[in-house]
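User: I'm putting together a teaching handout on how multi-component assemblies are represented. Below are the sequence lines for each component of a complex, exactly as they appear in our records. Could you produce the 3D structure of the whole assembly as structure tokens, so the students can see both representations side by side? Please keep the chain order the same as the input.
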Amino acid sequence: QSALTQPASVTGSPGQSITISCTGSRSDVGAYDSVSWYQQHPGKAPKLLIYDVKNRPPGVFNRFSGSKSGNTASLAISGLQPEDEADYYCNSYTTSATWVFGGGTKLTVL
Amino acid sequence: EVQLLESGGGLVQPGGSLRLSCAASGFTFTNYAISWVRQAPGKGLEWVSGVSGGGGSTYQADSLKGRFTVSRDNSKNTLYLQMNSLRAEDTGLYYCALDLYHSGSFYYWGQGTLVTVSS
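Assistant: Of course. Below is the structure of the complete assembly, with chains in the same order as your input.
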């Protein structure tokens, strides 16, 4: 199972909006609405931001939103804050009854 | 308060074995699927294996089948990962992660246990 494809890096300015894409195939992203997104700051464990494509756990700001079209899922972050600078990973369940992560995207807030 | 506490990591020679443990507390352990996720130094996340709440179903990354085995002991609220024939590329931080929403996502994470495979 190959890793899902994410851009290696994305840059934005405070207050701006950015989108991170996550491209898979009909065997993973396109097969189920079981896509999740994680934020990871250096030296910390990942934090769940979005599950089931678009659902936010309690406490996650509504500046974070998820969507999916075909084999590509997306994470949008609006009103960028300096603390949003982190690594972001997507994840999907697959038709092989396994899970696969994306390669990760480093978000820089300049 | 939900807690996941990994242990069992350390330095091991190539070809060696380790058994990792993840001790859970603060919730009804049998109600939730739980997985192992690893991260090589400076690299991204990689799902390793998972097990259903009752322990009747296990899931394994294709690349690790035959070497790693996941299990859980619900009487001890503990998840295990038996790792055999270890290779240098297995070096990394191993997290256990809980699927709180029964959705295939990972809400609670431990702090990880470090495995180093080196001679």
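A couple of points students might notice: The radius of gyration of chain A is 13 Å. Chain A touches chain B at residues 1, 3, 32, 34, 36, 38, 40, 45-48, 51-52, 55, 57, 87, 89, 91, 93, 96-104 (CB under 8 Å).
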